[in-house]
Specification:
With about 200 residues, the chain is an alpha+beta fold. It has a single domain, classed as NADH Oxidase (3-Layer(aba) Sandwich), CATH 3.40.109. Helices cover about 30% and strands about 15% of the residues. Strands 1-2-4-3 form a 4-stranded antiparallel beta sheet, with helices on both faces. Helix 3 runs antiparallel to helix 6. It is globular.
């Protein structure tokens, strides 16, 4: 167990317990083609409503134009650290099917794809940090996203570096104890607010 392993009520798979979202990435690390395709395949095989697969991804490795455009779309607080990641990936959801009908839950399905990508990153010894702090319109314009596709997130992926490389305010967050709301306040049984009997 690493110092960042989640303290769960009962054991869960190590890929889930040990997954976390760092900000300190190794600026010298690169992601090879096989690793990249492995990440993308994990996302591609996510479940979706009626197998609609509403997700689309914009992928940039550090040093490539797409990476820079994705980086430029980030809010200033994320630009403080995300530029050291090996890879930036924007997730977008198609709001309508090919026949023009409204999709059922495209953001939900795309979130599942990003989750699978994040877990696969951890399985490869990498780390992923999903970000909602970005300018969706800037991303849309700079990368030629057509109408009907909604940018949802940008994920930084790379190899972990020391927290000491971060500015002090980010360093404290990087090393803080990981926390989650208790099971009893999140999962309900007979009705809203009524905890499941098994939830501590």
């Amino acid at each position: 167990m690493s110092p960042r392993t989640a303290h769960t009520a009962v054991a869960v798979h190590p890929l889930l317990a040990e997954r976390w979202s760092p900000r300190s990435f190794d600026a010298t690390h690169t992601i090879g083609d096989e690793e990249l395709v492995s990440l993308l395949e994990a996302a591609r095989w996510a479940p979706s409503s009626r197998n609609s697969q509403p997700w689309r991804f914009l992928v940039g490795r550090r040093g490539e134009p797409t990476y820079q455009r994705l980086f430029d779309s980030l809010v200033s607080s994320n630009r403080l650290w995300a530029g050291d990641s090996s890879l930036l990936i924007a997730a977008l959801a198609a709001e309508r099917a090919e026949n023009g009908a409204a999709q059922h839950g495209p953001a939900y399905d795309t979130g599942l794809a990003v989750a699978q990508l994040s877990v696969q990153a951890h399985a490869l010894g990498l780390h992923a940090h999903q970000m909602g702090g970005f300018d969706a319109e800037r991303l849309r314009v700079s990368l030629g996203v057509p109408d009907g596709y909604r940018p949802l997130s940008v994920t930084a992926i790379g190899a972990l570096a020391s927290a000491d490389l971060l500015p002090p305010e980010l360093r404290a967050r990087e090393t803080a104890v990981r926390e989650r709301r208790p099971l009893a306040e999140t999962f309900f049984g007979d009705g809203w607010g009524d905890p499941l009997p098994v939830a501590p």
